[in-house]
Write a sequence for this structure.
């Protein structure tokens, strides 16, 4: 294995040339070229789905690029598996760190590459000696015998970095390392990253916090819609310049919806909601007949906010009012009983029952209406099947029949099933989280029509989406969150992808202004 | 249900061939256990002299021997459908046998009252399991093992260690009697299984139990009270266990410690055997009944053929492993 000092600082270490990657017709990367230099922190910035993560996944051997080359030290390399990447001296730390809970720091650091004795057993003495040197280098001040669960997130990051160094990594890619760190912890991490690069290691630093990127990163690549739109080598960009590059001169192609004919009383009124962790003092209002979007970057706390509203998580402080009355939902069933409909974020694991039939999936939310009598629990399954069939036609679910398992349907049709179950009865509020993720363009337009129709019939609708064009096409009003806070609201013609994106990064500005 | 092949202009002969293969494999995965039972019946009817195996009285005898296991196993089936586990049902049944006899002999309660109280105690044990699993979030294996062990303790405590005998004649007659020429336990089993089948397949609670078992997170977000649903399943399992314990005490003519402990393993064997029948690995009431019957057909036939007892156990374990493995493998190949 080559030592870090093989290349001198500032020399190109990794060169990505015109990399292209397509996922089922969607171009995730288009002709992306990036050069990573030894001993330099290289920032990757861009909106959701801009291509940062896809590029990193190609480098990590998780995805295979369709075209383009990757060169290490001037020689082309083929990365087929995660093991290939690690053998080449590249380490990847994803946001959901791959720590083993319950294990101590030493065992977590040594994962995958412990030293062995001649008998083939793990040589804990040698491993520990090496770990102590590495720990010293990254500034680990806690015991190697500490249980990893007891450490703060920041310290767990240090352990992940230490693991990378145990494997002699020359390049460490970190995906949003500071997202869940306090400002003090983040600046400690910055210091360690600077020491790493001073020793010759290259670091790829992915972050939505533009102020820190502009301060920490010597080189920066800005991604937008799968392309590299700006490269800055050895030239620090301000966070204003970064926002400009990320937002760009986007052509507004999306058509705005007709304004609602009639907007009624507030149905949902949330004031100062906090969960003490990911949602801080968030407020919003949705009126009858209105489609309100909840925009922001991934990890901004939008899903967590909606889960607080419908009782899947405990509200620490704040108040939720439904149709003017203060409510306290202990579980989603309480919300559903108050005529709230929920279409969760993860369709396959939360939204539908894949092995069950369409009519089972649809009728589950309104079983009591199929009872023969109040005191006779016998279900009129025939009536249920007819009702499901009617909704299948109404919503346009492409299926062989109501008895077909939902798992056999396409993603878009699965999602329509998840929505259709709330159409058996009038709902006063419908909360949809990423309704068209993984849904093809045609089904997406149909879902949008469906959602608009629901609002047209007087329901209040709240839509979480990371796809800003969807928010533009669908919403009468868009509330934007960043880092757990509501940072702004856009109404009517103010709603453009550019405006949503600019607001999504808004909090980064504020921090810079304070600094 | 054949293939969901897209519309192609020329269906290749090779594709037709694999479609046949798939139908056969799906058939094996769904009907393998039933086919095995058919083969067993044919073998025994030829192997047992004088056609004694196929005589109506022997067939009724097999069902009668299956009745008690079928009741306790069907209750337990609901717990498995809801996605949990219950190791306490055998001990709950043993406690029920001692309790129901003791309530009549020592406390002098009338037969129906004693049975009712016992079934309520069984339900309470189920509720305790349910609360531990849902509210205290104790792993079901641990929770039901703990509760089950405590039930053993209660059994010893209540009976002071010796069997309870001198039961009222009416209580013994409960399982000895016949109605329309068919043994009472068969009728009781039929009623319990029909009630449980309707409950699971034709009531809101049953749909919720199925939904929670299929995907608890999705069920929660559809507005199902997951905890309550799970507790209900445990309560039903506890009640069925108690009923089986009561009937066993009537059959034995005494309340005997540990008499029903063995039902736990028999129930699990039957349920898993049944999950490999008719449906794709799902637990269901009819499957459980078939599972119980297959085991008892084997036991009955083997003993009538004069086979040594140890073979009966080897048969029981063997058919369980074989049926489930065969059905799983067939299903996997049918999908591939």
């Amino acid at each position: 294995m080559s030592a870090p000092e093989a290349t001198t600082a500032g020399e190109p270490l990794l060169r990505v040339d015109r990399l292209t990657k397509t996922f089922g017709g969607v171009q995730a990367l288009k002709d992306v070229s990036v050069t990573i230099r030894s001993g330099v922190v290289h920032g990757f910035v861009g909106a959701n789905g801009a291509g940062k993560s896809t590029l990193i996944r190609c480098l990590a051997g998780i995805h295979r690029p369709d075209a383009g080359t990757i060169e290490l030290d001037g020689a082309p390399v083929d990365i087929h598996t995660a093991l290939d990447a690690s053998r080449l001296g590249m380490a990847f730390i994803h946001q959901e760190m791959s720590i083993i809970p319950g294990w101590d720091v030493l065992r977590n650091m040594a994962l995958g590459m412990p030293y062995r004795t001649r008998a083939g057993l793990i040589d804990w003495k040698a491993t520990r000696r090496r770990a102590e040197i590495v720990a010293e280098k990254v500034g680990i001040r806690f015991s190697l015998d500490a249980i990893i669960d007891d450490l703060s997130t920041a310290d767990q990051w240090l352990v992940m970095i230490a693991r990378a160094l145990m494997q002699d990594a020359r390049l460490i890619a970190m995906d949003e390392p500071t997202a869940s760190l306090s400002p003090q912890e983040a600046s400690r991490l910055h210091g360690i990253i600077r020491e790493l690069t001073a020793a010759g290691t290259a670091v790829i630093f992915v972050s939505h916090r533009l102020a820190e990127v502009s301060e920490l990163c010597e080189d920066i690549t800005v991604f937008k819609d799968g392309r590299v739109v700006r490269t800055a080598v050895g030239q620090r960009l301000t966070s204003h310049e970064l926002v400009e590059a990320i937002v760009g001169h986007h052509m507004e192609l999306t058509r705005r919806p007709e304004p609602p004919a009639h907007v009624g009383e507030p149905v949902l009124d949330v004031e100062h909601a906090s969960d003490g962790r990911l949602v801080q003092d968030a407020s919003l209002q949705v009126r009858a007949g209105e489609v309100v979007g909840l925009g922001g970057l991934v990890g901004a706390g939008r899903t967590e906010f909606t889960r607080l509203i419908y009782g899947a998580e405990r509200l620490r402080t704040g108040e939720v009012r439904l149709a003017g009355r203060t409510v306290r939902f202990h579980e989603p069933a309480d919300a559903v009983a108050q005529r709230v409909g929920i279409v969760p974020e993860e369709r396959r694991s939360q939204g539908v029952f894949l092995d069950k039939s369409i009519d089972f999936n649809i009728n589950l939310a309104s079983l009591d209406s199929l009872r023969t009598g109040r005191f006779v629990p016998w279900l009129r399954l025939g009536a249920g099947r007819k009702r499901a069939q009617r909704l299948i036609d109404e919503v346009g679910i492409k299926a062989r029949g109501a008895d077909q398992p939902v798992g056999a349907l396409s993603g878009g049709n699965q999602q329509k099933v998840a929505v259709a179950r709330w159409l058996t009865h009038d709902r006063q509020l419908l909360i949809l989280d990423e309704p068209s993720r993984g849904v093809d363009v045609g089904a997406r337009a149909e879902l949008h029509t469906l959602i608009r129709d629901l609002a047209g019939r007087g329901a209040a609708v709240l839509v979480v989406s990371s796809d800003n064009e969807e928010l533009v096409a669908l919403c009468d009003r868009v509330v934007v969150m960043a880092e757990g806070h509501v940072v702004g609201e856009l109404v009517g013609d103010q709603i453009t992808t550019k405006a949503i994106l600019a607001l999504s990064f808004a909090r980064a500005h504020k921090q810079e202004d304070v600094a | 249900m054949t293939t969901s092949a897209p519309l192609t202009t020329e269906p290749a002969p090779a594709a037709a061939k694999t479609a046949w293969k798939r139908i056969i494999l799906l058939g094996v995965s769904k009907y393998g256990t039933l086919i095995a039972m058919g083969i067993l019946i044919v073998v025994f009817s030829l192997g047992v002299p004088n056609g004694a195996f196929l005589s109506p009285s022997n067939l009724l005898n097999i069902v009668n021997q299956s009745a008690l296991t079928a009741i306790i196993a069907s209750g337990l089936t609901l717990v498995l459908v809801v996605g949990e586990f219950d190791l306490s049902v055998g001990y709950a049944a043993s406690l029920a046998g001692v309790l129901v006899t003791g309530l009549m002999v020592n406390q002098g309660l009338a037969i129906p009252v004693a049975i009712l109280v016992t079934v309520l105690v069984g339900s309470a044990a189920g509720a305790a399991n349910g609360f531990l699993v849902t509210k205290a979030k104790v792993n079901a294996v641990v929770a039901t093992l703990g509760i089950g062990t405590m039930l053993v303790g209660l059994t010893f405590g209540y009976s002071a260690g010796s069997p309870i005998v001198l039961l009222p004649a009416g209580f013994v007659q409960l399982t000895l009697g016949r109605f329309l020429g068919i043994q009472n336990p068969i009728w009781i089993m039929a009623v319990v299984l029909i009630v449980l089948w309707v409950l699971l397949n034709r009531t809101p609670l049953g749909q919720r139990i199925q939904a929670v078992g299929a995907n608890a997170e999705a069920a929660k977000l559809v507005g199902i009270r997951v905890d309550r649903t799970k507790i209900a399943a445990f309560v039903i399992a506890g009640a069925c266990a108690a009923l089986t314990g009561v009937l066993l005490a009537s059959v034995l003519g005494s309340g005997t410690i540990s008499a029903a402990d063995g039902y736990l393993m028999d129930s699990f064997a039957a349920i898993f055997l049944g999950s490999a029948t008719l449906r794709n690995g799902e637990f269901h009431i009819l499957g459980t009944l078939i599972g119980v019957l297959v085991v008892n057909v084997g036991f009955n036939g083997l003993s009538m053929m004069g086979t040594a007892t140890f073979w009966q156990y080897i048969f029981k374990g063997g058919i369980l492993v074989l049926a489930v493995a065969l059905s799983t493998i067939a299903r996997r190949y049918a999908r591939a």
Summary: The two ends of chain A are 42 Å apart (CA to CA). The interface with chain B takes residues 312, 331-333, 335-337, 342, 344, 349-356, 360, 363-365, 367-368, 370-371, 377-379, 381, 408, 421 of chain A (CB under 8 Å). Residues 352-425 of chain A form one domain.
